[in-house]
Automatic annotation (TrEMBL):
Domain Amidohydrolase, chain residue ranges per copy: 89-363
Protein name: Amidohydrolase family protein
Native source organism of the sequence: Gracilibacillus caseinilyticus
Tree of life domain: Bacteria
Pfam families: Amidohydro_3
Length: 386
């Protein structure tokens, strides 16, 4: 099937995009020929679709009655609170994961990495819901699944259930604070790496531990990655410690992250330090962004819009020049900034002059395309992907 998207603004010029079998086949000067089969973008700006590399589809309060949260006191207390809150949810987990995926799609996010809770009481219930959703969303949304022992891989005795998860659809093994929560840095990390090796899966660790404790953990991750000599698919999410220590203190850590091709993933927090973007760039460390807590037990805020998060990334880092705003956009998309022949036709149309203005004003998504098909218009999802 061939689709034609007419009058798309790309680098200041109006173009027609010819889509074949979900891919960009041709990019032509706008023809202005009346054509009832084509989609007329009327000069709206082309933006590549987004990727959200850290989220939790299975535990949010979107679609639920308002719940009162409590301030964060300690991680174990917060985990207890979250567990009890999840037991009172009105929507079942299948409905919940779909609601969040739909929210992200209507913002223009067509690739995500979601951490999914697993533990001995929950088993694979949440994971199965996301695996099912991934089947339903095939061709529309790419979903990477992290088997996430939120209550601690060792602390909650979840190694067996993690193995089950890795056999049944999880792409990566997750973990959380090997020091602060698990209290066994080496044993916890070594278990993650042995699971990674046994099942040939990646690793994505939640690391909130501050300062030198966090740095020590990252240093162990880099050593274990080097020892494992595996294909580089290791990430550390949050890594607040990299925003707490000086660049001088972190030189060796930066070098090991770069040499072992380990990614740092941030949700761009405004209430605590984050890895310094300029240091990530200067040290050539792979850096990715996710929305993380969206209206959940940890935070009542968030709307699942990664463009808004990209805008926050630029603002928090004081990035205001055209070059910087465009660079900031590259952290929320895994795609070329302009359409490229042969790429999957996932893109967004907005009313903005250029990418830098879109980053600054976060406009409504006038249309979202996945595989060349329009799936959302004027910020609302269409029925073809429900
Ligand atoms: Zn998370």
């Amino acid at each position: 099937m061939v689709n034609v998207i007419k009058n798309v603004k790309i680098a200041g010029e109006w173009k027609d995009l010819i889509i074949k079998e979900g891919m960009i086949k041709e990019i032509k000067a706008a023809s202005n020929v009346a054509d009832t089969d084509s989609y007329d973008a009327r000069g709206l700006l082309y933006l590549p679709a987004f990727q959200d590399m850290h989220c939790h589809l299975d535990k949010h309060l979107v679609g639920e009655q308002w719940r009162s949260l409590q301030p964060f006191i300690t991680l174990p207390k917060q985990l207890q609170f979250e567990k009890s809150l999840l037991e009172t949810m009105e929507n079942d987990v299948n409905t919940r994961v779909r609601l969040m995926a739909e929210l992200m799609l209507q913002h223009g996010t067509t690739k995500i990495r979601t951490h999914v809770d697993i533990d001995r009481t929950l088993g694979l219930k949440h994971l199965e819901a996301v695996v099912e959703l991934r089947k339903q969303m095939k061709g529309i949304m790419e979903i990477e699944i992290v088997a996430f022992p939120q209550q601690g891989l060792l602390l909650s005795d979840s190694v067996d259930v993690a193995k089950d998860a890795l056999r049944n659809g999880a792409d990566l093994i997750g973990g959380v604070d090997p020091a602060g929560l698990e209290k066994r840095v080496d044993a916890s990390l070594e278990t993650m790496f042995s699971l990674s090796k046994e099942f040939a899966k990646g690793i994505d660790l939640h690391l909130h531990d501050p300062g030198h404790l966090g740095k020590y953990t990252i240093d162990r991750v880099t050593e274990l990655t080097k020892q494992a000599k595996q294909e580089a698919n290791v990430a550390v999410s949050h890594a607040y410690c990299l925003g707490m220590l000086s660049d001088d203190e972190l030189q060796d850590t930066y070098q090991a992250l770069r040499e072992n091709d380990i990614s740092i993933i941030s949700s761009v927090p405004i209430d605590r330090p984050m890895p310094r973007l300029q240091s990530m760039i200067d040290n050539e460390i792979s850096f990715l962004v996710g929305t993380d807590n969206i209206q959940d037990a940890w935070s009542p805020f968030g709307d699942g819009d990664i463009l808004r998060r990209g805008s926050r990334l630029a603002e928090k880092n004081g990035w205001v020049t055209d070059e910087q705003l465009i660079a900031a956009y590259s952290y929320i998309t895994g795609r070329s900034l302009e359409p490229v022949i042969g790429e999957k036709a996932d893109f967004v149309l907005v009313d903005a002059q250029n990418i830098q203005q879109a980053m600054a004003i976060v406009p409504r998504r006038e249309a979202v395309f996945a595989g060349g098909n329009v799936i959302a218009e004027k910020g609302e999802l269409l029925d073809n992907c429900r």
